[in-house]
Amino acid sequence: MSESGMTSSPTANHYVSTAPFDPYAAELGGAAEGSVFNHASQLKLTWWRFKRHKPALFAGILLLFAYAMIVIVEFLAPYNVHTRDVDRIYAPPQSVHLFHDGSFVGPFVYGRTMTLDMDTLRRVYTDDKNRVEKLRFFCAGDSYRFWGMVDANVHLVCPAEGGSLFILGTDRLGRDVLSRILYGARISLTIGLLGVMTSFVLGIVIGGLAGYWGGWFDLIVQRIIEVLHSIPSIPLWLALAAIMPADWSPLVVYLGITFILGLLDWTGLARAVRSKLLALREEDYVLAAQMMGAGSSRIIGRHLIPGFMSHLIASATLTIPGMILGETTLSFLGLGLRPPITSWGVLLTEARSVNVIALYPWLLFPVVPVIVIILAFNFLGDGLRDAADPYK
Question: Which of 38, 152, 230, 272 has the highest local Cβ count within 10 Å?
């Protein structure tokens, strides 16, 4: 072949990467969207599913805000929880305004004058449009002890000097309803968490042992659960609450109510744990752990419970509303928390009379946060349960 007939082929440039080999690099950076989910952790998958549940996500944000609020409730409340204004007993809520006579003034309330109706002996409050009381922010007001340890008097918002600020009105002793609702949130919200922790421990321990051991222990546990379920909950609450002496300190009563609520709500969680362990105890990895000499507590705590912990957390979240309602019911009936402790149930005792509700309906305002928090926990529990379900 002649030299002129030969064609020169292009030279190929070869390159060898020195980076460590990653078998999933092409999948994670490629077009296969499902591969990202295939290699994500269980926690990340749960979070991605939970974000798609918008009501649950909003409820979680609301609950985070509520529990963050109770940390600084003394700062947020306009008044101290025990502050009384004897000149403004049963004062109706005051409206906050921004404009006065067509000009912007800023947040303010109108001053009030009180007259006594001699026919009905009711206090009648009227707004004085000539008295503009501007609100103060980050101001010095009623003194308090922050978490019972540090003396302070700084509040987020305060009334004008010599004025009043009762956004949700006052009660029969002239105490600010809004401030007492904020203080009551600390007790009502934490008693649900502590009660769930108690029932969580009892349910996991008793239900775990019943499901793993079976036999006579499982038989006894199931009969105890059936007996507890056969007793109406409210009479049982009343009987246990009546056991506590009336001379106990408020802290001991608080812990006693928490223990009672946790003692009565562990049965549902125990049955859920038992049913899971009855199926999981036959798995090969459980047999391998037994062959290696692992004890029952280690097998249950390290190998079985973590496999469905997300479901347990979701179930526990759904039981917190029951705890809050239990405390509210007992306190409303006068058998739970009692003054000077302030909770939402204690506040609702002011509205036990139909005549009081008809004359002073703002005393029912404490029921609003109860409804909102219970709905938020239900939405959050539904979202966590759906997100933790591996078959969805």
Answer: 272
Contact 309, 273 (CB under 8 A): no
Over 60: is that where the pLDDT of 33 sits?
A: no
SS3 (DSSP) at 151: strand
* CA gap 31, 14 in Å, rounded: 26
Q: Which residues of 40-71 are buried (b: 16+ CB within 10 A; e: fewer)?
A: eeeeeebeebbeebeebeebbebbeeeeeebe
Element (H, E) at 24: none
List 152's β-bridge partners, or say none. 144
| 284 neighbors 299 (Cβ within 8 angstroms) | no
Question: Tokens 């349910």, residue?
Answer: 203
Phi first, then psi: give them for residue 265, nearest 5 degrees: -110, 10
Same domain, 103 and 193: no
Q: How confident is the model at residue 22 (pLDDT cuts 50, 70, 90)?
A: low
Query: Are the C-beta atoms of residues 310 and 388 closer than 8 Å to each other?
Result: yes
Tens of pLDDT along 155-184?
999 999 888 999 999 998 999 999 999 999
- Over the stretch 320-355, which tens digit does the pLDDT of each residue have? 888 888 788 778 877 777 788 888 988 988 888 888
CATH number at residue 227: 1.10.3720.10
User: What DSSP state is assigned to residue 353?
Assistant: S
121: left (phi over 0), alpha (psi -120 to 50) or beta: left
Q: Report whether 273 contacts 203 (CB < 8 A).
A: yes
Measure the CA angle with vertex 308, ends 306 and 314; round to 5°. Answer: 115
Phi, psi of 152 (to 5 degrees): -155, 170
Q: Which of 113, 132, 165 is the last residue of a domain?
A: 165
Residues 231 and 147 in one domain: no
Show the DSSP H helices in the chain as ranges.
25-29, 34-38, 42-51, 54-69, 73-76, 177-213, 215-230, 233-243, 250-264, 266-280, 284-291, 296-298, 309-332, 344-348, 354-359, 367-388
- 196 and 159: one domain? no
Which residue range forms the structural domain that includes residue 144? 94-165
The one-letter code for the residue type at 373 is I
**Which of 138, 165, 192 marks a domain boundary?**
165
All residues at 6 or more sequence positions from 181 whose CB lies less than 8 Å from its CB, including other chains: 168, 344, 347, 365, 366, 369
